[in-house]
Specification:
Length: about 400
């Protein structure tokens, strides 16, 4: 079980084999410790020492975010005792063919999913632009097969993402001000929701990687660096379009989110009078949408995950538009997005590797286990999911 604590000013206390989320004498949640896998804590929420010890003892993943969803950090869980698995991960980092093949698999799957979503938009909304953008990405997929270096693969990912987001805005019924992907900070409602959903996905993939006893810092597509959870960023790539982008379209097109659900963040005035401040500062239906379901016929200071941008093609998806104020969800709207994200993860589809229908949530854990099997040599190829 996973729990999101968003009520500001509350305290998590231990009560026998339960945790209570309280504010004064009021109890907002009752959590059974043994059933918990992860708690996501937003903003001003405190944890008493007995509650903290109980969470550590049960090895619960505790994630801290700002009240608007920016990732802050997490309690460190026990390291896997499987030293040999981690050693194998590090050894394979120096195997150029292994790394290149993994990167090609991840990027090609992501690009295929982008093509699928753009084509859905083109068919449903009669948008020729989206079909043209999809064809551009198809050309990149063909060229990707000839890439002979990881840097080149990263360049194709960056170029493909730039093309994709230039057509993504056509999937929305209303003009929401989205023109390109802007992360730090997001300056329109669509970018704000995408950043939040990617943060939720990041945390879920992290949990799956830890459950598979893999080292989350040893990646392929995203180069390993000090403090970078490279493997988490690698394995979440295949789920961005499938889970987050389709859900973002649904939230707005089904009317669950409107302009009133967002607010601009204005900078606090600096109190030092010697500074000149006159210059302007630079629900249930959610799983039924036509964009979000996979084929049933087939057997900074703002929230967002850290990301390594790929610049071989001169692409910068992080650059903010100067002069625009950051945009964030209201607290009530944040709850809507959390609820929709959890419902999306429970959507089932046919998962070919095990030959049966499972939820997106279980698929994330299955994909982490597949990656482990590749590391251990049990299977030869990592096969990412693709939106069909």
């Amino acid at each position: 079980m996973r729990c999101y604590i968003t009520k500001q000013g509350t305290t998590i206390v231990k009560d026998g084999d339960r945790l209570l989320v309280k504010k004064g004498d009021d109890i907002y949640h009752t959590l059974f410790i043994r059933k918990l896998e992860q708690i996501l804590i937003f903003g001003n929420v405190s944890i008493t020492p007995p509650a903290r010890r109980a969470l550590f003892k049960q090895n619960v993943d505790v994630v801290f975010l700002t009240k608007t969803g920016r990732y802050v950090g997490r309690y460190s869980l026990d390291e896997s005792k499987n030293f040999f698995l981690r050693k194998k991960q590090f050894q394979l980092m120096d195997d150029e063919n292994f790394v290149l093949n993994i990167c090609k698999s991840i990027v090609s799957a992501k690009l295929f999913s982008m093509v699928s979503l753009l084509m859905r938009i083109a068919r449903t909304k009669d948008k020729k632009l989206c079909k043209d953008k999809a064809n551009e990405i198809k050309k990149l997929i063909n060229e990707l097969g000839e890439a002979n270096s990881v840097d080149s693969v990263r360049g194709y990912e960056g170029k493909g993402s730039s093309i994709y987001f230039s057509g993504f805005s056509n999937g929305f019924i209303e003009d929401l001000g989205f023109r390109k992907r802007v992360r730090r900070p997001p300056t329109d409602p669509v970018n704000s929701v995408l950043s939040l959903l990617y943060t939720f996905l990041f945390n879920r993939v992290y949990a799956a990687i830890r459950a598979a006893n893999l080292d989350p810092y040893v990646g392929d597509l995203h180069s390993s660096d000090y403090g970078r959870l490279a493997l988490v960023m690698d394995l979440m790539e295949e789920f961005r379009v499938i889970i987050c982008d389709t859900l973002c379209l649904s939230l707005f097109n089904l009317g669950m989110l409107k302009n009133k659900d967002f607010e601009q963040i204005r900078p606090e005035p600096f109190e030092d009078s010697s500074i000149d401040l006159r210059e302007k500062p630079h629900e249930d239906d959610i799983i039924k949408d036509k964009f979000g379901l996979m084929s049933a016929n087939s057997p900074s200071e703002f929230f967002d995950v850290p990301e390594q941008r790929f610049s071989e093609h001169g692409v910068d998806l992080n650059r903010n538009d100067k002069g625009k104020l950051p945009v964030q969800l209201t607290q009530e709207a944040l709850k809507k997005v959390i609820s929709a994200f959890e419902k999306k993860l429970q959507t089932e589809f046919y998962y070919e590797p095990i030959g049966k229908r499972i939820s997106y949530e279980k698929a994330i854990f299955e994909q982490a286990r597949m990656y482990r099997k590749v590391i251990e040599g049990e299977i030869k190829t990592y096969v990412p999911l693709v939106l069909k």
